[in-house]
Design goal:
With about 260 residues, the chain is α+β, with helices and mostly antiparallel strands. It has eight helices and nine strands. The strands form three sheets. It has a five-stranded antiparallel β-sheet with strand order 6-5-8-7-9, with no helix packed on it.
């Protein structure tokens, strides 16, 4: 069966099918080869036009900037993408990973605060957003000495307190159950804040560091005073025993007998 190709030439159907599958045609490059060449050109153009930060790693500073621009400045994804030199899809994906972005059933991106969620869930998410924007703090893991399970609990702590904080330092922290305060022992100080933004609770702050300097000094002084009194008492008892034994004998006479003529 004969037909006309796109150049107006009469060809057979069998020949035309062969050219379309990549075989050489009497007119040079096949249609498949032309399509592949055009596709490769398009891919090169796309790669050339990618933003400068495409594929670059994220860090804490960029995460904070992203949170600030989307959640506080209320900038659009496209605007943030232009400013951060990234693709809009990369901005959305990072926001979702950090917990303040989500996709709906139709795969449309929204900020978490824009979704109809329970008030408690909103409060927790907003606390995480605030935590991401905060500076001059880190986190510590603590244990409560009355708990035999040794479970670790994470608290935020301001950098101004760190000079007096280390492993085994006692700190005062609020507890989650009743809002009261408890004394806990630090078991680990993180170099950088360890924040689980997907946790269903907001991290609380260390209220204060228990300074035992004055306490330990006073205890030491009391112990030294007790030791001194015990020593005096012991010497007094020795003197009394010796006086009783030496009754009728002078000390000088006994010393001369023991040590020779003085």
């Amino acid at each position: 069966m004969n037909t006309y190709d796109e150049w107006g030439t009469l060809v057979s159907t069998n020949d035309y099918d062969g050219w379309s599958q990549g075989h050489n045609s009497p007119f040079g490059t096949s249609l498949a080869q032309q399509a592949a060449t055009e596709a490769e050109k398009e891919r090169r153009v796309q790669r050339k036009n990618l933003p400068a930060m495409h594929g670059a790693p994220w860090n804490g500073a960029l995460d904070s900037l992203l949170c600030n621009d989307l959640c506080l400045e209320r900038k659009s994804v496209e605007e943030v993408a232009r400013e951060m030199h990234r693709l809009p899809t990369a901005i959305e994906a990072r926001a979702v990973k950090l917990g303040f972005g989500t996709y709906d059933a139709k795969n449309r991106f929204h900020l978490v605060g824009e979704q109809p969620k329970k008030a408690k869930e909103k409060s927790v998410n907003f606390n995480h957003l605030i935590t991401l924007l905060q500076r001059d703090y880190t986190t510590v893991d603590v244990v409560f000495t009355e708990n035999s399970d040794g479970k670790h609990y994470t608290y935020k702590i301001h950098n101004s307190m760190l000079t007096n904080v280390g492993v085994d330092t006692l700190v005062v922290v609020p507890v989650y159950t009743n809002g009261n305060f408890k004394v806990a022992k630090v078991v680990y100080v993180h170099d950088e804040p360890e924040i689980d933004i997907r946790a269903p609770y907001a991290l609380k702050w260390v209220a204060s560091v228990v300074d035992l300097t004055a306490f330990n000094d006073q205890v030491r002084r009391e112990e030294e005073a007790v030791a001194l009194l015990k020593k005096k008492e012991r010497h007094k008892a020795q003197e009394a025993a010796l006086a009783e034994l030496l009754e009728g004998t002078s000390r000088e006479e006994l010393l001369q007998l023991l040590n020779g003529k003085l």
